[in-house]
Sequence to fold (123 residues):
Amino acid sequence: MDEADAIQRLVRLISDGLRLSRPEPEIVAQLVAAGIPDEKAPELFAAVKQAIQAGVQAAITEGLSAPDGPPADPLLAAAFREGQAAFRGSIRRVWLERLAIPLGLVLLLTVLLVGRLLGWWGQ
Fold:
């Protein structure tokens, strides 16, 4: 496994833990199980969590909160991008959920109207 894969795996481990509201000690224990030294795991967790939150904030403000872009450190840059992607994915899910019912109703009414016009029902 190369360095980029290892970085992405650590970022996903922390991101998934935060998204699932796991307690910090549980996420830190997972980092230790993944090979991070005991004394470095809490520090790594805090840094990655902060970078994820900065990425979310940058997505919300469309980059105004981070005019220099992601951090220079590859791990923190990956966490920053993960935060941006998580926020944008949440926004897409909300819009899809909001559009699903109205779009379904429009489609149903269209099918009923076309069916009625073509004489599929009521003969």
About this structure: The mean pLDDT is 86. The first helix runs from residue 3 to 19. The chain has four helices and no strands.
